[in-house]
């Protein structure tokens, strides 16, 4: 029986489906941990497949590929005498059933397999669709120490941890795939504190890092001593392998060396901004785009999108295009050009006036006797969409759409126009948060950002009234309530699922609330066709909030 364990936390950024590449990351982290003197390496949830693998695990060929990769990892880790053991996480077949599993591999041999018991089936998670629930797990015996290895959701309720404590668990090592949500870092710490307090046993929480479609995993892995005090902490939003040393005291309890690193985790707007940067960077890089192309309007949404893109990818991979119409103000042209100068990207201009004239001429016979209306406004937006998609097709850059959650909620966007593109980095940000992030970015240079320091968004872009500029003197508030009012109503409807009467009781005018409810409901068909985007809130459109398009339950008071 050993009285000391050196435990490595491998906070890695896998790519879903890239089994060979993920295996290389696993082995590289194992080698780093070995150089640090680790006895065992803890990986995040399903590191070998990437998380979440979704329906990939339903392919027998994919499961075979995983098993071959495990065999290869066993062979490669067998070669280093006295190298650390691995708590390798992977989908795993057992007697014809698929499990979300962790394998204890020691000296190149699979010693123990444990499967996730509590499969989440809410929000972005649908593991019951593709995995079988494992039995209530037993402890894992490693060098005379009884380890509890619950997997992610297994620690969100007390039962699995309590069971493992009853089985004699001395230290909990927990693989996790926990995506970012605003203020979730505190929620995780409080949750793990609860489990530690209930069990009186130390717990190490290893979280994935990196972007996967709409989800961003923010890392921030950490460990707590049995008394709940912070033992070790890894940074957010970055890959890291950290080894901490744990010793058994005279009373039999384990405690971490006080000199273990304790990195700070960003909070508030800092964390949100870093999430947006990482989500966009990984979506572009993992899908092998050379860069992004953005339509610059001179407005706040495209300016913030451009700043995030430059911070994520570097100025040389961001192409900014101004597409003026007869309704574009000189102020907007100047603001877009100044923003591009601050971001050091340069900007080009492609006038859509000729396209507007051509469509007007083409459609004149069909529109005869009809007054101009929103149809002509949408043609402008769709002309811009054609230009951006043409540039994307010709040069390979992905079109980055610039709409925010406030607009997407109420349908204040043009399908096949400003909604077209491959990714929407502001998709889950309310307009009021967009304003706040612009102020924050002008005052801060985020960790790891590739863009310039100092102000990157002109102050006039932030302070001027938002406008789509699709008709003379147009302002967003001609069509929508003020954004502070709109966003509060939307937050109550979407995140809070509150009724019209409840929102009215909170202080809003009933007519306004009913109008927003109607707009939110009617725009569902647009949102179904919108590109993916970074999840920030607990109720992001797409994976989180799933409403029927054909829906008779609308605009009700109760």
From TrEMBL:
<dbReference type="Pfam" id="PF02540">
    <property type="entry name" value="NAD_synthase"/>
</dbReference>
<comment type="similarity">
    <text>In the C-terminal section; belongs to the NAD synthetase family.</text>
</comment>
<feature type="binding site">
    <location>
        <position position="402"/>
    </location>
    <ligand>
        <name>ATP</name>
    </ligand>
</feature>
<dbReference type="GO" id="GO:0003952">
    <property type="term" value="F:NAD+ synthase (glutamine-hydrolyzing) activity"/>
</dbReference>
<comment type="pathway">
    <text>Cofactor biosynthesis; NAD(+) biosynthesis; NAD(+) from deamido-NAD(+) (L-Gln route): step 1/1.</text>
</comment>
<feature type="binding site">
    <location>
        <begin position="295"/>
        <end position="302"/>
    </location>
    <ligand>
        <name>ATP</name>
    </ligand>
</feature>
<feature type="binding site">
    <location>
        <position position="407"/>
    </location>
    <ligand>
        <name>deamido-NAD(+)</name>
    </ligand>
</feature>
<dbReference type="InterPro" id="IPR014445">
    <property type="entry name" value="Gln-dep_NAD_synthase"/>
</dbReference>
<feature type="binding site">
    <location>
        <position position="178"/>
    </location>
    <ligand>
        <name>L-glutamine</name>
    </ligand>
</feature>
<feature type="binding site">
    <location>
        <position position="526"/>
    </location>
    <ligand>
        <name>deamido-NAD(+)</name>
    </ligand>
</feature>
<feature type="binding site">
    <location>
        <position position="184"/>
    </location>
    <ligand>
        <name>L-glutamine</name>
    </ligand>
</feature>
<comment type="similarity">
    <text>Belongs to the NAD synthetase family.</text>
</comment>
<feature type="active site" description="Proton acceptor; for glutaminase activity">
    <location>
        <position position="45"/>
    </location>
</feature>
<feature type="binding site">
    <location>
        <position position="122"/>
    </location>
    <ligand>
        <name>L-glutamine</name>
    </ligand>
</feature>
<dbReference type="GO" id="GO:0005737">
    <property type="term" value="C:cytoplasm"/>
</dbReference>
<feature type="domain" description="CN hydrolase">
    <location>
        <begin position="5"/>
        <end position="248"/>
    </location>
</feature>
<dbReference type="InterPro" id="IPR022310">
    <property type="entry name" value="NAD/GMP_synthase"/>
</dbReference>
<keyword id="KW-0067">ATP-binding</keyword>
<dbReference type="GO" id="GO:0004359">
    <property type="term" value="F:glutaminase activity"/>
</dbReference>
<feature type="active site" description="Nucleophile; for glutaminase activity">
    <location>
        <position position="152"/>
    </location>
</feature>
<dbReference type="GO" id="GO:0005524">
    <property type="term" value="F:ATP binding"/>
</dbReference>
<dbReference type="InterPro" id="IPR003010">
    <property type="entry name" value="C-N_Hydrolase"/>
</dbReference>
<dbReference type="InterPro" id="IPR003694">
    <property type="entry name" value="NAD_synthase"/>
</dbReference>
<dbReference type="InterPro" id="IPR014729">
    <property type="entry name" value="Rossmann-like_a/b/a_fold"/>
</dbReference>
<keyword id="KW-0547">Nucleotide-binding</keyword>
<keyword id="KW-0520">NAD</keyword>
<dbReference type="GO" id="GO:0008795">
    <property type="term" value="F:NAD+ synthase activity"/>
</dbReference>
<keyword id="KW-0436">Ligase</keyword>
<feature type="active site" description="For glutaminase activity">
    <location>
        <position position="116"/>
    </location>
</feature>
<comment type="function">
    <text>Catalyzes the ATP-dependent amidation of deamido-NAD to form NAD. Uses L-glutamine as a nitrogen source.</text>
</comment>
<protein>
    <recommendedName>
        <fullName>Glutamine-dependent NAD(+) synthetase</fullName>
        <ecNumber>6.3.5.1</ecNumber>
    </recommendedName>
</protein>
<feature type="binding site">
    <location>
        <position position="378"/>
    </location>
    <ligand>
        <name>deamido-NAD(+)</name>
    </ligand>
</feature>
<dbReference type="InterPro" id="IPR036526">
    <property type="entry name" value="C-N_Hydrolase_sf"/>
</dbReference>
<dbReference type="GO" id="GO:0009435">
    <property type="term" value="P:NAD+ biosynthetic process"/>
</dbReference>
<dbReference type="Pfam" id="PF00795">
    <property type="entry name" value="CN_hydrolase"/>
</dbReference>
């Amino acid at each position: 029986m050993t009285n000391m364990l050196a435990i490595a936390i491998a906070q890695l950024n896998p790519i879903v489906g890239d089994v060979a590449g993920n295996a290389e990351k696993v082995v590289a982290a194992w080698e780093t941990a070995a150089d640090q003197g680790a006895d065992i390496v803890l990986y995040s949830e399903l590191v070998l497949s990437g998380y979440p693998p979704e329906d990939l695990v339903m392919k027998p060929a994919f499961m075979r590929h995983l098993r071959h990769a495990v065999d290869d990892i066993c062979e490669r880790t067998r070669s280093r005498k006295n190298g650390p053991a691995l708590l390798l996480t992977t989908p795993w077949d057992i007697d014809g059933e698929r499990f979300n599993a962790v394998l204890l591999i020691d000296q190149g041999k699979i010693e123990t397999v444990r499967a996730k018991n509590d499969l989440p089936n809410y929000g972005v998670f649908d593991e019951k669709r593709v995995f079988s629930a494992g039995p209530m797990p037993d402890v894992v015996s490693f060098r005379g120490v009884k380890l509890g290895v619950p997997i992610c959701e297994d620690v969100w309720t007390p039962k699995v941890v309590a069971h493992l404590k009853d089985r004699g668990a001395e230290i909990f090592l927990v693989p996790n795939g926990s995506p970012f949500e605003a203020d979730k870092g505190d929620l995780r710490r409080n949750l793990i504190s609860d489990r530690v307090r209930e069990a009186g046993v130390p717990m190490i929480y290893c979280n994935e890092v990196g972007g996967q479609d709409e989800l961003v995993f923010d890392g921030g892995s950490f460990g707590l001593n049995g008394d709940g005090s912070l033992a070790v902490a890894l940074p957010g939003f970055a890959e890291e392998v950290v080894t901490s040393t744990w010793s058994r005291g005279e009373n039999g309890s384990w405690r971490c060396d006080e000199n273990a690193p304790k990195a700070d985790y960003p909070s508030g707007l800092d964390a949100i901004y870093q999430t947006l940067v990482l989500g966009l960077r990984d979506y572009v890089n993992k899908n092998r785009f050379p860069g992004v192309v953005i339509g610059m309007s001179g407005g706040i949404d495209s300016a913030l999108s451009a700043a995030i893109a430059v911070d994520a990818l570097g100025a040389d991979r961001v192409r900014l295009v101004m597409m003026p119409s007869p309704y574009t103000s000189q102020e907007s042209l100047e603001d877009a050009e100044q923003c591009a100068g601050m971001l050091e990207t340069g900007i080009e201009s492609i006038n859509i006036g000729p396209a507007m004239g051509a469509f007007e001429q083409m459609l004149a016979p069909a529109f005869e006797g009809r007054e101009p209306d929103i149809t002509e406004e949408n043609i402008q937006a769709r002309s811009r969409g054609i230009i951006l998609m043409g540039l994307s097709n010709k040069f390979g850059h992905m079109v980055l759409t610039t709409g925010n959650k406030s607009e997407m909620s109420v349908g204040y966007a043009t399908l096949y126009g400003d909604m077209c593109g491959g990714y929407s980095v502001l998709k889950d940000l309310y307009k009021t948060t967009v304003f706040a992030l612009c102020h924050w970015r002008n005052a801060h240079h985020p960790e790891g950002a590739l863009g310039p320091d100092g102000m990157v968004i002109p102050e006039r872009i932030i302070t001027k009234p938002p406008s789509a500029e699709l008709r003379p003197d147009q302002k967003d508030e001609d069509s929508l309530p003020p954004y502070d009012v709109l966003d509060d109503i939307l937050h109550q409807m979407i995140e809070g699922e509150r009724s019209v009467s409840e929102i009215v009781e909170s202080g809003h005018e009933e007519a306004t609330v009913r109008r927003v409810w109607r707009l939110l409901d009617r725009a569902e068909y647009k949102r179904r066709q919108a590109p993916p985007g970074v999840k920030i809130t607990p109720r992001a459109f797409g994976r989180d909030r799933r409403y029927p398009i054909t829906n008779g339950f609308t605009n009700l008071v109760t």
